[in-house]
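Regression report. Comparing outputs from two consecutive submissions.

Submission 1:
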Amino acid sequence: MMAHALIVEDDADAAEMMAALIVSEGFTAATASSLRDAKRQLALQEPDIVLLDLMLPDGSGMELFDHPEILANTEVVLITGHASLETSIQALRLGAADYLLKPINIKQIQGILSRVTKPAKLKAEIDSLKDQLDREGKFGLLWGRSAAMQKVYAQIARVAGTAVTVLITGESGTGKEVVAQTIHELSRRRNRPFLAVNCGAISPQLIESEIFGHEKGSFTGANRQHQGFFERANGGTLFLDEVTEMPLELQVKLLRVLETGTFMRVGSSDLIETDVRVIAATNRSPEQAVANGKLREDLLYRLNVFPIQLPPLRERLDDVPLLAQHFLADICEREGTSKHFNQAALDRMSAYRWPGNVRQLRNAVQRAYVMAVGEEIDDEWLPSDTPAVKKENGQYLSVKVTSTLAEVEKTLILATLAHFGGHKEKTAAALGVSLKTLYNRLKEYAEAGDTDKEHMTSE
């Protein structure tokens, strides 16, 4: 059975043009020129999608939302003259899935129609994820049952089915990209690309080309035309991580894309249309970034339509055992082995404050897995907030409170090296540093006369 669309638009020519485009995409279409006509058409046949103009002869198109029962299983797309911040917020609040910009063109229509999804289907998916959360402690790609994460899940469920921009804030390692991926996979854009770009990891000289693309010959080394992230993510979601690290002059161009849906490649004067949902993230306070001149205030307002604040791991320590077991299960499956944490290990991890957040926990689990000799993983190789390092014989290495960090580091390195009988690979693995870093430290200590040459050569 063909999907059905209702166009609520008082401009007869515009309505007929949209109807013709929609029919050419394999839908049936009906038109209504007023709220009264729209209600009559809704009663005659439930549409899969309603294209709703805001300005109608007998009132605002928003009045249809006063009767949620007639739109309960219909996707609503607003028709507006410009994608203002107010329109985005209003669309979200009332339950609209997206909006079309006037003048309407075929690419806009095609993009909207390609994503038509019954609200009931999206609700069923969210309900399924909530059941999975109760059973397994995971929500999509995210793990945790804490109250702080339950709040995040509720926000994801609310915003995923809409088209509004999202700004995710949180410390490094809290999982901002995983949240963005979860939003994408629950959205109407899930069958199109999800691309992530770290704005702080690309040099200022190359970031414009990477995001917007460039033409052949536009600068030295541009030997061919290059499609940027906005072109490659067309129809899908673009995740801009550490957006406050983007150069200010590029922030102006990003703002223009968000407002007009168009951009130009480097070295070109031709406008390219794009249909991309932007999700941004930062580990800074966005307001502080504005105060420090790192983020344009107008861009912040445009990105921060729907903010999501991720809690640090130290504020949801109840989730640590669940996360650790999940990471360990992944490693065991990948390596074809079976290992488990004992209670001491779980207690140690649950008491630690994890300054590096979920990323640090994942790395700690990997290290503990590697260092465990048998199937049981104890707390020996796990981090601790105490100023003592446990040795295998049950003794502790104590440090003086007034010691410098360099002195503490030297004492720990040399004691660990002695513990392993001078074996540097085991020492580096236990300390969580590279072999090169260990060699450099031992060389410094030897040159200062703090250790003997034997430690420099023994394995």
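Submission 2:
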Amino acid sequence: MKKRILSCLLAASMTVAWLPSAAMAAETEAGTEAGTESMTEAETEQEPEFDVADYLTINDDKYKGIEVTVTKKAEVSDKDVEDEIKQEASDAGLSTQVKKGTVKDGDTVNIDYVGKKDGKAFDGGTASGADLTIGSHTFIDGFESGLIGKKVGDTVDLDLTFPENYASKDLAGQKVVFTVTINYIEGEPEVNDDLADKLSGGEYKDIDDFKKSVREKLEQDNETNYNREVYSAIFQQLLKLYPVDKYPQEFIDYYVNTSMNQLQQQAEDESETLDDMLKSVYNTDADSMKAYFKTYAEQLLQQRIILGVIAQKENITLSDDDFQSAVEGYAQQYGISVDDFLSYYSEKDIRESELENRVMEFLASKAKITETDETEIETEELEVETEAGQTEAETSSAEADTES
């Protein structure tokens, strides 16, 4: 689980972190998968209090009427529903096993394999009954592509070379041979009443009713993704309008220390030193990790301070009933009980995050939102990048002419 948790944090740093935040959802999911774990002493320390008004003053109302451009909310097609059901079936192990046929890109195959270096099997290079999606780049270059065109039942030898920067020093840059047997190709199950019954745990006996529920879920996901994009675009404008120049150092210290202590606990759980775990699993060191957590803490503070000040100006608050309703909604979203949800996050954190949601809803209601196709935005971004590249090239050329 340790690699998953940090990768979730890294992914979360690329987004705005109000609920339902990437970090919160990912940590809840990871905690649910691993079972409820006892919190370390560091994790139970109180987060430092501070007044957002001490770090930012907003004397205008430019946050109202912010102009942003976002992609249109995606529509859910019949194919989307079918694909989602088939994916759920695959995740639940309800797919069929195709014992004939040829492997093609995109197929999920079940394989046995043995990896050998200099004729001897190496640690971690052997598995039986492993599922692998061709084209997922899960394995080193040449492994997945080497299975394309091969038939179910075939046993093939793949002559491959590990990357020079591979985590294991014993394998980095080394030539190896993987002997792979293709057991079967994962086939799509028939989408019918029986499948609906199995996937829903008996809640839906009719496939049409089940499809309706899946469509509603996908539409809700699209709504959430759309709102997240709108909020993120608005927040980027807020950062330009109201830059935060100072931060509460006690909060940064708390966040960095707590995060590092969590990593320390993960290392101890794996009977490793922190330095060894950071190097082998994350390809980094403690100083770099602390620098990352400091940057992320500042990003969280930017959000908390800016939105907190706007909440004060607009008298946006969160009642006890609002809090309870939010908690119940998130618990249902993540498929856990309210008590479990509250065991992962403090009431203070949830209240602050939900208040930030309310502020973003308010800002979105006042914003001027232009919707466009995703391809149009990608084209605009490409044009900007091209212009930037041309400008950089022109500058370099001018400097070269000056030097000569």
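Expected: both submissions complete independently.
Actual: both completed, but the second showed a warning that disappeared on reload.
Relevant detail on submission 2: Confidence is low (pLDDT under 50) at residues 1-43, 391-404.
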